[in-house]
Amino acid sequence: MSTQPAIQPADPTTPSIVEVEGIGMIYPGGTVALEGVDLDFPTGEMTTLLGPSGCGKTTLLKIIAGLLEPTAGQVRINGTPVFGPGPERAFVFQDFALLPWATVLRNVAFGLELQGRDKAEREQIAQASIVKVGLGGFENAYPHELSGGMRQRVGLARALCVDAQVLLMDEPFSAVDEQTRRLFQEELLRLLGNENKTVIFVTHSIEEAVYVSDRIVLLSPRPGRVNRIVTTELERAGRTADEIRRQDAFLDTVEDIWQTLKEYLADERMTE
């Protein structure tokens, strides 16, 4: 086996588009979901939030999106405090969140419609996004006529359509089978290579996190705190997906993260 994967904070020379400072979240009833979370998200990188169930991954993502108001701390986008949703962020939901009565074209263009763009412009932009995610020819289909994987492509196309600087993705591939999931991972990396987006990604899969990410933030069990930041060191250029997954750096990072998560699980059992 090769040396242990690098563990380090974000490169201070890389500007951060998203800054999370002292974030805490207490839900009604007293459940403490997050406590003292400090993070910077570098521009143009994909960062994955990973940790045991209930550690606050999705809560943190929704706070960054402006969909939840934290009980402590502040989120800044390009140095400006967040007080709600904004055009510089787009959210890709786990459950697709499509309009069942609208066609693929209308669903993809919906964010542009909310921005007040005229119909011809938004449909032209939406059409280009539909083609990017491989759904050309399905513009007039309705969500109930699509597979789960196709519906998720619609959600991704809608996020790309508004040209947000930051994509927030909440377990976007969890509802599809393993083969489709792997294809989506590869297509996501291809798309992002052309789009130059900053991505904050939530998943329960260690392998998925290591494959798609530049950095992985490990959150502790509830209340979620930043435990470690793991920087992946994969050689991607000129390599197939299978070759990447067979690299020692990939296997070592997966094992290293799994050992940390096992410690979390052991600690939880001891406190039960």
Report on the structure:
With 272 residues, the chain is of the alpha/beta class. It folds into two domains: 1-88 and 166-272, 3-Layer(aba) Sandwich (Rossmann fold); 96-163, no CATH class. 38% of the residues lie in helices and 22% in strands. It has eight helices and ten strands. It has helices spanning 57-65, 104-114, 119-132, 148-161, 178-195, 206-212, 241-245, 248-271, and strands at 16-26, 32-42, 46-50, 72-77, 80-81, 89-92, 166-170, 198-202, 215-219, 226-231. The strands form two sheets. The chain has a six-stranded mixed beta sheet, sandwiched between helices. Strands 2-1-4-5 form a four-stranded antiparallel beta sheet, covered by helices on one side. Helix 2 (104-114) crosses helix 3 (119-132) and helix 3 (119-132) crosses helix 4. It is globular. Mean pLDDT is 87; it is low at 1-10.
Please describe the structure with a list of short key phrases separated by commas or semicolons.
272 residues, 6-stranded mixed sheet, 4-stranded antiparallel sheet, globular, 22% strand, disordered N terminus, Rossmann fold
